[in-house]
Specification:
This protein is mostly helical and about 350 residues long. The chain contains 13 helices and no strands.
């Protein structure tokens, strides 16, 4: 009897240990933990004063003007459009683009509204999506995700860039800095500014390189790869630095609204669209989970560059990432039951 009683605590300890290992091995935990740690490192750096406001601005410019273009060009240069299955892409953006437009209409057609709409739409598919989908669904799931990643930035970031440049041109006309008679010159300048831009330009150049069928020489590919790899960690550390000085109490409503729009509403819309397009099983699951991934760091960089909604976006990214531990687990469990 004494032996049985003595074994009970040991059995309970083993159960708790097994549960802890199971949680630690969960795809959501494994994919989001590095994100938390990088953002946390940035929070520590910000609160300790290791990096000042001017340095944050300079580093944001470095990421936006050098690291992102390197990542986008290299990614798009490897895309072979003729091999892509377009049904998941059409299904995903069949829901995402109307949702983006609806949010712009809600927040207002001005730079702040465009950046907030991007925040409720743009997923962190590379840094979180790839490890999450790979751990949970294997190579077959990653193939579907990579099809989406191939055009995700091309569509959403280019659309946002064009909208921001056009809105900026309109504000210059209305503000009197540009005569209304020269409106067509202003419009042409806005279009040129949206093309000669750190986001659309490397995407277009990468696509053209991919269409040529040529491969990047190793002497060029390796530096681009290293620059692209530096993007994610540095961008997330900068998010943490901004979080350290973000007045959460003043912007929790906007942050909660964006996090709900991204983590909850968007997966529902994408799931409905994918179902209507006839997608079932693994492709449907991957699209829903991808839509539920937290807000991507590119949104923070847009807010930094155009100097609008910076605190709202920073707070929303933090809340979206934290709450994704729960919401992504729910989406993955729900899709397993629906498609199992």
């Amino acid at each position: 009897m004494t032996h049985t009683v003595a074994q009970a605590p040991a059995a309970a300890a083993r159960t708790h240990y097994t549960d802890a290992v199971s949680v630690a091995n969960h795809p959501v935990f494994q994919s989001l933990t590095p994100v938390f740690l990088l953002i946390g490192a940035g929070v520590v750096a910000g609160r300790r004063g290791w990096i000042g406001a001017a340095a944050v601005k300079d580093l944001s410019n470095l990421v936006f003007l050098l690291l992102i273009p390197a990542l986008l060009f290299r990614t798009m240069a490897q895309v072979r459009l003729e091999t892509l299955d377009w049904r998941p892409v059409v299904a995903y953006f069949g829901a995402t683009l109307p949702w983006f437009a609806l949010q712009m209409a809600w927040h207002g057609l001005q730079p702040r509204g465009i950046v907030l709409a991007l925040g409720g739409t743009f997923s962190n598919l590379v840094m979180i999506g790839i490890p999450l989908i790979g751990l949970a669904y294997g190579q077959a799931g990653v193939v579907t995700l990579l099809t989406l990643i191939a055009v995700h930035s091309l569509i959403l970031l280019t659309l946002s860039s064009v909208a921001l440049e056009l809105v900026d041109a309109r504000s210059r006309v209305q503000g009197g800095t540009t005569p209304a008679a020269q409106l067509w010159h202003t419009a042409l300048s806005a279009v040129r500014g949206s093309v000669i831009h750190p986001i659309p330009l490397p995407i277009a150049c990468g696509l053209l390189w991919g269409l040529s069928g040529a491969t990047l020489p190793p002497v060029v590919d390796q530096p681009l790869q290293l620059l692209g790899q530096a993007f994610g960690p540095l961008a997330l550390v900068l998010v943490g630095v901004s979080l350290a000085s973000t007045p959460w109490r003043e912007h929790w409503r906007e942050a909660l609204s964006l996090a709900l729009a991204k983590n909850l509403v968007m997966p529902v819309l994408v799931g409905i669209s994918a179902w209507l397009w006839g997608l079932r099983g693994l492709p449907l699951t991957v699209l829903v989970v991808a839509a539920g991934v937290p807000i991507g760091a590119n949104v923070f960089l847009f807010a930094q560059r155009y100097r609008v909604a910076q605190t709202e976006v920073t707070a929303a990214m933090g809340l979206s990432t934290v709450s994704a531990m729960l919401t992504l687990s729910v989406w993955m469990l729900l899709m397993a039951r629906l498609t199992g």
